[in-house]
């Protein structure tokens, strides 16, 4: 038996003893987890906004560890390899995987009916991310089974530390993809909503991809400070300034050329704002599932003909979407779950060269037994928590 | 109107299926409402297994006969065949897919309720399936059209409980996307109210069956296996533990 952090109900996490994972398919590997990070998207699960969670589900999807067992068809990995695993599971063989659209994998979701019904087609499975996304056991455990291991596991090169590498599972490729999708041109000013782990990485990636200036938007002073010092953003506190006016002042009235949403469905506004009350009420009544404040702000602020790049997670439907503004301003929308497998090698290169250092995201290394406390700190952004990372 | 001592096989099967579905759905809810549904479902399942005709008991059968309407949904009588179709694109050559499909012995990998297919000769085969409760259902089938790597069609022979015909079409997809596969199944509802009930049940599920079969064909061809989470660890499921 091993220890694992399990979902038991809305905001109810427990460390339980569960059986060890087994190889279930010849393409599987078993990884002994040494670091496993919390992620903002977990909060949507814990808060009950993503249906299809079952009591007993092991959560966690951003992890580093050592390959301890592999199925007979695993060719590219060896026992003892220090690896990260991309959070999104790709079979490596379907048309989408072959075209580096790994999160659109046709084959990796064993329970495709929910998303097929709700979204029209099913997407990839994701570790520890509800049964709609496959129901795969997550990484907040001593061991985890990795399907399609040849495609999902990547050996960490020498010179890249565990603390840097673990975030190449999810936060780094997600942030990087946000900037990559935006097709940044010389002279472009990029504004990033949300300075959590993904937002910090999106800011850094925007610089690496040639942005002229990068603006980070949040309300938490510690996160804004890190965005400024570590990622090089101009910080904007939305509780202190009118974001629209500030962005216009910083862009000569044009608006940012690229707006990145690193927040998603649980967006927050000024505590007293009418819009916040509206969205929270409708969400509570399940009249809309996702709060869209960030999207509305981005559409209004974005430069005419500019690009919105969305990597903050949405699950269902949003309300009061300003389609007229988006259409008449000729905006381009890019979005998606990360296609991490397409980016890992490039990201390790950046890290090895010292151009990118995600290790500062790990503000709270903790024991797995402290999992519920880690999520409490992370959820309430207490004690300047950017990411709690468990050492099982 | 012919006298009936109990439920006919078709009606029995319908009752068993409905009962099992309700019982399962009820148990999955794991709350008092679910328990009620499950109990009702279990009752139906037993009635079906014991051959008790619910239609006769409720008089719905007689009413339906008088009104010329379906006993279960009170829909107008329609002896028209039920047609379902599913489509999928698979990153593989038509030849590979055609050969897999043409070997009917592979079909239990695509249709989970099929136990085995016995090949008799190039055109004839016997299909053996398990219904809920483990009841064996078998029928014979004949291939009536074959264009190599492109089209295959077949129909059931006399004596099948649920007569049907099917065809599968393989077309090259544009832009190196592989092969588009279209599976069409046409069911001929057997006579009698119970028979129509079976058809209705299959009317809801053949579509899923057809879609699921093509999904399995795609996954087996592209990756060599079906993705699974069966047997992975999890914590306590609470009340749900009883039904997995």
From TrEMBL, chain B:
Residue ranges, annotated region (Disordered): 222-244
InterPro entries, sorted: COQ10_START (IPR005031), ORF3 (IPR047137), START-like_dom_sf (IPR023393)
Domain (Coenzyme Q-binding protein COQ10 START) ranges: 92-215
Highest taxon in the source lineage: Bacteria
Family: Belongs to the ribosome association toxin RatA family.
Identification of the protein by name: Cyclase
Source organism per UniProt: Azospirillum oleiclasticum
């Amino acid at each position: 038996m091993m220890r694992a952090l399990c979902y038991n109900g809305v905001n109810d996490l427990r460390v339980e003893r569960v059986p060890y994972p087994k190889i279930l398919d010849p393409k599987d590997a078993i990884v002994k987890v040494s670091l496993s990070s919390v992620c903002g998207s977990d909060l949507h699960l814990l808060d009950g906004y993503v249906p299809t969670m079952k009591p007993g589900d092991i959560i966690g999807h951003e992890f580093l560890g050592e390959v301890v067992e592999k199925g007979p068809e695993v060719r590219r990995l060896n026992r003892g390899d220090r690896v990260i695993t991309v959070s999104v599971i790709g079979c490596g063989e379907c048309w989408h995987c072959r075209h580096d659209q790994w999160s659109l994998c046709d084959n990796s979701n064993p329970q495709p009916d929910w998303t097929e019904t709700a979204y029209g087609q099913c997407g990839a499975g994701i570790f520890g991310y509800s049964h709609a996304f496959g129901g795969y056991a997550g990484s907040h455990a001593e061991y985890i089974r990795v399907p399609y291991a040849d495609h999902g596991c990547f050996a960490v090169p020498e010179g890249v530390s565990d603390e840097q590498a673990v975030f190449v599972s999810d936060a780094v490729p997600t942030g990087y993809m946000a900037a990559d999708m935006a097709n940044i041109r010389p002279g472009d000013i990029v504004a990033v909503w949300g300075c959590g782990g993904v937002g910090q990485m999106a800011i850094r990636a925007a610089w690496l991809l040639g942005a002229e200036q990068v603006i980070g938007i949040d309300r938490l002073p510690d996160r804004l400070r890190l965005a400024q010092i570590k990622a090089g953003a101009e910080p904007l506190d939305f509780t202190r300034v009118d974001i629209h006016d500030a962005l216009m002042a910083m862009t000569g009235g044009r608006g940012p050329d690229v707006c990145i949403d690193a927040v998603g469905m649980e967006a927050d506004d000024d505590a007293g704002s009418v819009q916040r009350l509206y969205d929270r009420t409708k969400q509570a009544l399940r009249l809309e599932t996702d709060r869209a404040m960030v999207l509305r702000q981005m559409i209004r602020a974005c430069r005419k003909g500019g690009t919105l790049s969305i990597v903050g997670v949405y699950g269902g439907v949003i309300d009061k979407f300003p389609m007229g503004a988006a259409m008449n301003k000729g905006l381009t929308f890019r979005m998606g779950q990360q296609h991490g497998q397409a980016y890992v090698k490039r990201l390790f290169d950046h890290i090895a060269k010292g151009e990118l250092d995600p290790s500062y995201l790990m503000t709270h290394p903790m024991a797995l037994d402290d999992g519920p406390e880690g999520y409490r700190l992370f959820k309430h952004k207490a004690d300047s928590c950017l990411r709690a990372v468990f050492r099982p | 109107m012919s006298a009936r001592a109990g439920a006919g096989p078709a009606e029995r099967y319908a009752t068993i299926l409905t009962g099992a579905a309700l019982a399962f759905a009820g148990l999955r809810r794991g709350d008092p409402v679910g328990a009620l549904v499950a109990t009702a479902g279990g009752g139906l399942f037993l009635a079906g297994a014991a051959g008790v005709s619910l239609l006769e008991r409720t008089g719905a059968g007689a009413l339906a006969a008088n009104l010329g309407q379906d006993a279960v949904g009170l829909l107008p009588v329609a002896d028209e065949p039920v047609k379902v179709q599913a489509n999928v694109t698979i990153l593989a050559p038509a030849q590979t897919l055609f050969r897999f499909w043409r070997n009917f012995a592979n079909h239990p990998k695509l249709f989970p309720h099929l136990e085995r297919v016995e090949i008799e000769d190039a055109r004839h085969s016997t299909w053996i399936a398990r219904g809920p409760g483990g009841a064996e259902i078998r029928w014979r089938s004949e291939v009536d059209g074959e264009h190599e790597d492109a089209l295959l069609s077949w129909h059931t022979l006399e004596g099948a409980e649920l007569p049907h015909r099917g065809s599968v079409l393989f077309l090259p997809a544009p832009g190196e996307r592989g092969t588009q596969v279209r599976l069409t199944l046409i069911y001929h509802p057997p006579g009698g109210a119970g028979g129509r009930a079976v058809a209705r049940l299959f009317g809801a599920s053949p579509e899923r069956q057809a879609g699921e079969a093509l999904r399995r064909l795609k996954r087996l061809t592209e990756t060599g296996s079906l993705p699974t989470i069966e047997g992975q660890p999890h914590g306590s499921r609470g009340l749900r533990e009883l039904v997995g």
